[in-house]
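dumping the sequnces here before i forget
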Amino acid sequence: MLRLDGLEIRQGEFSLSADWALEDGAVCAVMGPSGGGKSTLLATIAGFLAPSAGRVVWDGRDLTPIAPAGRPISILFQDNNLFPHLTVERNLALGLDPRGRLDAARRHAIGAVLERVGLTGMAARKPAALSGGQQSRAALARVLLMDRALVLLDEPFAALGPGLRAEMLDLAREVLAGEGRTVLMVSHAPEDATRIASHIVLVDAGRAAPPQAAGPLLADPPPALRAYLGR
Amino acid sequence: MLRAVAPGAFAVIFLICLTSFAVALTLGGGPRATTVELAIYQSLRFDFDLGRAAVLAMVQFGLCAAAALLVRMAGAPDALGTGLDRVVERFEPGGRSVDALAIALAALFLMAPLAMIVVRGVPGLLDLPDGIWAAALRSVSVALGATALTLVLALALVLRGGALAQLSMLLPLAASSLVMGTGLFVVLYPLVSPRDVALLVTGLVNAAMALPFAARVLAPAAAQAEAAHGRLATSLGLTGWARLRWLILPRLRRPLGFAAGLTAALSMGDLGVIALFAGDGEATLPLLMVRLMSAYRMEQAAGVALVLLALSLALFWIFDHGGRGDAAA
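..and the predicted 3d for all of it:
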């Protein structure tokens, strides 16, 4: 279980607090106005930013002092989720082992996961030779291969068209959440949240509110969410 | 933009002129046309006055350090600005033709000496002096050694550099190759025979001299690689050698090739340290050329110059081209 224990993030004038837990297997959309700190919250959970107070706790273990790669977390950023100078296979291999070694067993595992995301036969390509949607699939494949319990999605599909984005979200839910992983994803689009989220965290006015069940919240939004959604 | 760049460019050019030992030596600067650097050379090679050479070297260093400080204050020119790679449209009546004229004149100024080398050198190729190929081999070996060392040092400075590294990158600008050679000569003379270590010292000094340029070429690319892909690398646990191998080196391939080419070409043509240290048996191509000139064997000297030119260009091209392969990434 992910628990944010009295978490305070300060960067100059900006500050954000969060004090809540998220149940295992939840697919939680992080919503709120631009500049509110959604990405900052994810970066702190991932370990790229140190909180000024409080802890990030996973299954009772304090993650705060642990480097990003040591946390049970994989993260997809808005862009640059693949090294452009490496083949898809090598990009995925780095998810298994930072030294990037490839042996028969690893090649096999990579082949299998590429098949799952619909990229059969694309292992030898470089990212530039893939479409935007295929690049997203390859990045998702690496997340799958890394097999971490908590997956953070910082709008990795934002640059895709609406149809492709919905497709990728479905795939993400199917392959990630289907296996009991907890997913935390930044989203600007309420339809994305409706589509795959079980919970919603509203980030606004310096506070990340505790997760609430997505259905009831979207059906009867509180004033802050109502204002954000423009209803 | 010009106001920001011009003072720095002026200072760098001033520095280069201040240390233009090779030209003065080649053209046979005598007592009436001497420079501080030439005077250092003469007190070492002919008068063998180590103390005087050291004092002169300090004078030269002081001059250059002052100029380097000016560069610093003027804000060193950042030759590697960013942009969107778009062609900038210009609307200036007559601008193009004036530009073309200026560029043509500058090209003429640069190309004329090179053209003369080719014209005069081709006949010289039929009558190359003894030992030219040994000298060529020495030059290429020194250049390759200096290149390897510079790349390693430049990478280390760029990736791990602090304030001290910044300073150490400026120092070779202030200390010319000849001044550094003088220092090393004074240090080494009591210990070993200078001619035994001539090539080694030349390579070391060449590497140090090229270091600021190499580091300057690499730094922006390294910063960009980290900015674009650093978080991904960190999230995958790429540290140390793995980060270097999978992120930094591939992203730096082009600037590495360019820096290697630059260093190799600079080192090939260097005529500073080697003039101090070399005995008869250790000449590199530039030294061989100067010796032939001072013996008034101009045709042979031109032939050597042509070989030197060709080898320098070839090395630069090979390295720079090597960095461009695989550009689809």
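Chain B touches chain A at residues 228-229, 231-232, 234-239, 242, 245-247, 250-251, 253, 328-329 (CB under 8 Å).
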